[in-house]
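It would be a great kindness if you could assist me with a short task in structural biology. I am sending you one protein, given as its amino acid sequence and as whole-number tokens for its backbone shapes. I would ask you to consider whether the tokens describe a fold that such a sequence might reasonably adopt. The full record is reproduced below for your convenience.
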Amino acid sequence: MTQSFVARWGASVFNCRHCGAVGMQWTEVSHDVWKPYDLINKEIHQCQIKGVGTLTREQVLEHLHNLGFEAYVPRTSSWKSAFIASNERQTIYFLIGKNGIDFKLYEDVRETKCDERGKLFTDGGEMVRNYYRASDVVVHDLIVEIANALVANMPIDANLTSGHGMSWRAANAGLKKIQNESFESYAGNDMQDIYDAVSLGDGEDAYLGDGMWIGSDGSMRDRGR
């Protein structure tokens, strides 16, 4: 007789590494197949990675190359590569990082400067951060739009230089704040649902992660790690 499948749950609550959604917990949907479960919306999390969109990073870099951008390796290890181009009045450095694509905008035609090893100096200019995480725009589409405007000798509008998304450090700090404060603002029934989802059903406190525990009455307790 085949033993019926009994789903297992992960030990801690986390936020989605792609879209920034909070209140996720791993759940086993079939044997050794795990998916993030949204404890707040009570469903398997369907992640929409808005910051990435349909263009891949490779396609964006190929587009920059085709537009005449020159590739460099920055001196700063935060970025893996840089792509540079100028028009009649501005220079832009697209700085390719692991978690997004930043850029530096210079309101003049900047001379490219490299150190003795050929690595690019990125001092000066206006820094604009564009993280994939929790972005309200599609970062890859934004980069292509800015690059196209530059090579068409059009000034980069201020509305394109506001920056988007959230760094890992900021997101993790936000998650801790949510664990410490925001969960407590949910109605008691919602907290009870979270407890029911993460507990073993024995009435004991259940671990949410990062030192936070939830009691059978829905109350939160910080016991440290």
Summary: The CA atoms of residues 105 and 158 lie 11 Å apart. The helical segments are 57-66, 139-151, 168-180, 188-198.
